[in-house]
Structure formats: structure tokens, C-alpha cells
Amino acid sequence: MNFKNNKRISLITDFILCVLLIALDQVTKYFAVRYLKDKPAIVLAEGIFELRYLENRGAAFGMLQNQKGFFIIVSLIVLAAIAYLLFKMPQEKKYVPLHFLLVLIASGAVGNMIDRIRLEYVVDFFYFVLINFPIFNVADIYVSVSCVVLAILMLFVYKDEDLEFASRKKSKEEM
């Protein structure tokens, strides 16, 4: 199998994984609306963790309330950057974690963007009472955890030359 076929299979796999992750996010939000909206929180661990419905019109910690257009533009820019990186990324084993993290970030961005477009807000429902952490959802988990792991990889695993693919021109072999 040549490079183009491997790349095509990889991108199709990324797309399918992204669709599945978005579906998981949307299904959890559906259940949150169905079983949590206008109802008391469901306590899973007293004083530690509960399921509590929230319609979030901003970002974490209540920042940038009612800035739907801003969030959609930022999401589209992030998605464009991720698509660019996925297309440019070499088909080598060392890039598999980076590939997966970018798919997770894209899935989270799309999951929350769907809510913003469809509902005018994002459905959040996970709440860590113990630390009074902002209420969040599955898409937020994708983005937050992936960004932390990505930062660790960039700081301690990948070298500058490993990431040069993002700025170099394609060789004749890759075309």
C-alpha cells in the first residue's frame, strides 16, 4: 500500500472516530436534558461529585457570556488548524498520539459548537462539588484532557524537528 492510501485510510479513520466521539457527547447531553433539566441534582458521591444541569452561554468560570459568534469563529479556526495538521502529519508511529489528541480536540470543539448553533448554549452536567469546579460536559473533557496531554508531549516527548512537518512543503514523494 502506498503513502496516499495509508494517508487516506488514516484520515477516514480520524473522521469516523470524530463522528463517534461527537455522537457520544451529544447522547450524554440528550440524557442530561431529559433526566436533569428542571430537576434536582443527582448526587453520585455526597459532597464530591454530582450530575447537575446547566445551560452554559459562556466559557468556563462564566467568562464571555453570550458570545456565541466568537465561540463559533474560534471553533472554526481550531478545526481548520487541526485539519491542516492532520493532512500534513507524517504516517509514522510516533505521531499516533498526536493524531488521536487532535481528533479528540476537534470532536470536543464540534460537540460544543453543535450545541451553540442548535440551542444557543452548551449543555453541561458534570459537577465536582468538592472543589466547586465549573460544571462541564463530555466535549469539555475531550478538549481539556487532550490539551494537557498535548502540552506534556510538546514539552517532554516531541522535539522541534518532529514538528517541522507542519511548516514544510510536501516532497515529490508525498504528492
Topology:
Blueprint: H1 3-36, E1 42-45, E2 49-56, H2 68-88, H3 96-119, E3 122-128, H4 138-156
Antiparallel strand pairs: 1-2, 2-3
Helix pairs in contact: 1-3, 2-3, 3-4
Characteristic terms for this protein:
175 residues; mainly alpha; 3 strands; three-stranded antiparallel β-sheet
Could you please describe the fold and organization of this structure?
There is one protein chain. This protein has 175 residues and is mostly helical. It has one domain. The chain contains four helices and three strands. It has helices at residues 3-36, 68-88, 96-119, 138-156; strands spanning 42-45, 49-56, 122-128. Strands 1-2-3 form a three-stranded antiparallel beta sheet. The longest helix is centred in the N-terminal third of the chain and has 34 residues, at 3-36. It is elongated.
Short description:
This protein has one domain (3-166). It has four helices and three strands, in the order αββααβα.
Q: Overall pLDDT, averaged?
A: 90
Q: H/E order of the elements?
A: HEEHHEH
Sketch the major β-sheet.
3 strands, antiparallel
Number of helical segments with 4 or more residues: 4
Our count of domains comes out at 1
Biggest sheet, strands in spatial order?
1-2-3
